[in-house]
Amino acid sequence: MVLTTIDSAVNLATTSPSGPVHINCPFREPLDNSPSVWNYSSLEGLDFWISTAEPFTKYIKVHYPRVSSDAHDQLSEVIKVLQGAKQGLILIGALHSEDEMWAALLLAKHLEWPVVADVLSGLRLRKRLSPLPETESKVFFLDYLDHILLSDLVRCWAQADVILQIGSRMTSKRISQLLEGCYPMSYIMVDSHPFRHDPSHIVTHRVQSTITEFAGCMLKAHFPSLNSKWIGTLHLLNTMVEREISFQICADSSLREPYIAYAVSKAISRENALFIGNSMAIRDADMYGRSGVESGCCINTMLGLGLPCQGIMIAGNRGASGIDGLLSTAIGFAAGCQKRVICLLGDVSFLHDTNGLAILNERIHRKPLTIVVINNHGGAIFRLLPISNTVERQIVDQFFYTSHNVSVSNLCLAHGVKYLKVTTKPEFQGAISTSKAENSDIVIEVESWIEDNAIFHSGIRNSANETADNVLTALSKACPPDSVHHALSSFKIHKMEFFHFRVSLNEPPTSDTMITDLTTYYREGFIATIYLDDGSVGHGEIAPLDVHKENLVDVDGQLCFLMHALKGVEISYVLALMKGSFSTWIWNNLGLPPHSIFPSVRCGLEMAILNALAARRGSSLFKLLYPHSETSEGPSEASPSIRVCGLIDSNGTPAQMAHVAGLLVEDGFSAIKLKVARRSDPLEDAEVIKEVRKKVGRKIAIRADANRKWSYEEAVQFAHSVKNYNIQYLEEPVQHDADILRFCEETGIAVALDETLSSIQGNPIDYLSKFNHPGIAAVVIKPSVVGGFENASLIAQWAQWQGKIAVISSAFESSVGLAAFVQFSSYINSQDVDILRVKNKETNSSVAHGLGTYKWLKEDITSQTLNINRKPDTGIVEAYVADADELLKTLQINKSVILRSFNEMPVHTYQLNLDSAYLSCSVKVQEIGPAASNNVLIFLHGFLGTSDDWIDIMKVISGSARCISLDIPGHGRTKIRNHGTEEWQECSLSMEVITDFLHKLICHVTPHKVTLVGYSMGARIGLYMAVKFASKVEGAIVISGSPGLKDEASKKIRRKIDDSRTRSLIGNGLQLFLDNWYAGELWDSLRDHPRFKSIVTSRSQHDDISSLAKSLSGLSIGRQQSLWGDLMSCTIPILIIVGEKDTKFRRIAREMLLELGSSTKSEDNEMNDIHQMVEVPGSGHAVHLENPLAVIKEIRQFLAKIKL
């Protein structure tokens, strides 16, 4: 403190305007009754200062003359320090203009350092220019460092060597403490004013400069990359803690203060501004606010600079003023910025400036103001400060809390200000949304309670701390200490194989998903095997359930796609952390929307990958997921274990079912589930429950499962009859979601969710929030139904935080799936223990998981079945993690159950020489599939595309068809052989010329009819051929296509546009043409795709640009004959596929279907369903690239339909 104070004093005394300097001695930390004693350790880190004549803090006032090299010289030492950084960190304090935000972003992008942005910088609540958070990789924002630093492990690890701070002080005290913990290090502070701001007394370089000029100087220098482990670990910590905080805020059903900051930050846009009050308001916004997605006119400008986001105008009034005058300041801010302002204040701040309400009614030229008042009845911040733990509660209540009973409503009424009070999350969301459309000021009061708020904040902090600890622990154990690779290193999948199996069952299954052959019952599915580049192997089981809208044929298609797509793809141990890691990997690395993968397929994929990662690491799946477990397995007796629930399909009499239950209890089952709703009268099911309870006694848990087969009245009748028979819970008693909570409240019977979970689309927490009711006692989670371990873990976490039971359940999987589920169930149990510890609650008794289906297996995929038996010391049936792990590690496949193994189909590529009346070409052709097949598909790419665009889809379809793609003349590697001749110069690559040529090509390659699959330009070609060459076409699949333009005026305009594009292509070259082409609105969705750059790069693979230009002009939709009139007479089956986000072509597709529909009416005016239209969700124009799995499914179903 002394050194930096003297340095500051000397600088002020010796620089203009020079003069005497008065030094103030600071008081102790406010409200902190813990005096510190000086000791010699305070001198640690001062060796460099003692050994030189330099001051501790160097003051640099930068002058920016016309010769920029002078400024560079003045900052040479700063540049040198930055260039030497290995573990750098950028802090961005309050910024006051858009120019400063842009400069800070450009500097951060240039340095490629982690960025911690304060809420007043405008960048903490920034708006991304794409809906994909991954686009921010160019500028890495470390938004949740405050909560990451709750972890002792992180604080010890996070040692930055250079800090660059831009702008004024940071809101977070933990970040300030981090800086003190990193000392000694280089700490550079840049701000335009000369005043000192160094509360920790560790700034080594104080640069007085505008942010824009400083950034401009730094952009001219070169800076080496930071330590990749430093960047990667911080990125992973930030991602995991962000997801945990978001989970905690969204999973809680009550309207609490962190949610208010969260929701306001999401609602704000660049058209608005935000004014944040002091105390808890600004702290919550800094900790729990989040960035959002924005669109607007300046996006292309920002993206052109390589910037993935833009800032939001935010102001506060921090400093000596405390909470005085905040409302008046907000009104002045609104008048000055001329934007619609949301003002976020605490109740005490609001009441300290009620005169500001009078100013609202003055005729100041400004836009309406939305004032959100968080009324916790005074002084909530003191409950979160250390003083609440060191001072008696009575004293805190009396002297620190500022309790009041002032009515905010009456104050607003007295001043004529519109007022609204909200008490729930939906009400608050609605109020904020409504206020943005209002033409008047409005005060929104949110009532909160100090103690509830403190408990919720504590829960978030504890869970964030636990998450950060788990991440560092997982990374430290992922690789041996002496390994040259750290845990963030990626490695590659060598290949994936899979086979189709069928195993017989002992007795009829309890669902309708099985194949039945008289007295024999089967379970079918697939086993996928992942091989990593080091030889590590992992197995996963895919067992689709028909009742969940999956079937073996469609699942087979997705597995075929993944078999090709996974080859050479990178993975890392990060996937084992889950919490969204798998979804992110599926999107970024496979280019697939995560929701497009069937739940059973995703479950098997995750299972295989996790098992492969465990094998590579030399551990079990359980230890991979839960690295806090003991380091050695030991014998089975010392291994973690899970209890298993017995299963009864109660088709017999009550006495018979009671006898079966008794046998299960004798075997050692501590819980039994009975299937009910199998009889015509629910009272008969109730009699079964009663008899079973009498037989097994009161200590055995009884669960009942109705599988949604009862009406509400039947379920209530059953519930009333068994109310006194101690059912642990009743699964899915009613048919409709809306009746579940009603059933709970009327009957008092505990309910468990099962089939309801299969309805989840998108974020599970958003869907589950309506089931927070205490009557929902449990969730029964089938990983193969909810979409894998990641989703299952999230659902379980939600349930456990709500105090509900999380039961992992099998769906008649083999020992491969069961062995993985045993380990996953143990992980879920451990997660529950952690959550209870965070909540300061006692651990519940062991959960019996629903893996009792193992008794149904008459034969198995494995040569040796999973060992599930009675535990010697308790007599209870349990499954051991060690046994499950051993089975997977020594897996021997029972080859007698394999129906078919799948291998990759080779691609045959060749040049086909072919002449037509107008063209002589050497066509590049690619084929996959049986050459003798009479089921032939011809794939036609769009403009700028090639035959390669279809390979991934063709590899899936080729299992049952001969698939052929080609480079359409003018594209790719197809060579026009009469190029350069006079005949060629006069020739146009028109629709008529191209389709005539393709007709000859089809006749050459097959004597059979073909199904045409075309995209965009290729779709127009395919549709034209279906109309004009119907004798050779069996069906047509039109993807994002059009029959042409209807009127001549539109055609004329389009011809001029395409001719202009043609001249641009020839004159400016292909690369500039591509840049302009893909900047169009049509490609908005594709630009957000993680493979967009590689897709655009592939569009440059054309041998002949002049032919490509000729194709653009000749195949222009402005020159194409309109086919709208021909659709009415089309009898060729047509499937129209269009992306949900492709507004223009959705409209065209619907009009096409109407025209086609009129051609398929029978004599009695009934519609013949030979034409179909499908909208693929979440996709734009290039739907086959954005969501290939959905397109594959529709193609296969269409082919099956036309072959009937």
From TrEMBL:
InterPro entries per the UniProt record, alphabetical: AB_hydrolase_1, AB_hydrolase_fold, DHS-like_NAD/FAD-binding_dom, Enolase-like_C_sf, Enolase-like_N, Enolase_C-like, Mandel_Rmase/mucon_lact_enz_CS, Mandelate_racemase_C
Pfam families documented for this protein: Abhydrolase_1, MR_MLE_C, TPP_enzyme_C, TPP_enzyme_M_2
A molecular function GO annotation: thiamine pyrophosphate binding
An annotated GO BP: amino acid catabolic process
Domain of life: Eukaryota
Entry-linked CDD domains: TPP_SHCHC_synthase
Gene3D superfamilies: 3.40.50.970, alpha/beta hydrolase, Enolase-like C-terminal domain, Enolase-like, N-terminal domain, TPP-binding domain
Residues of the Mandelate racemase/muconate lactonizing enzyme C-terminal domain: 654-750
Alphabetical UniProt keywords: Lyase
NCBIfam families attached to this UniProt entry: menC_gam_Gplu
Protein name: Mandelate racemase/muconate lactonizing enzyme C-terminal domain-containing protein
Originating species: Kalanchoe fedtschenkoi
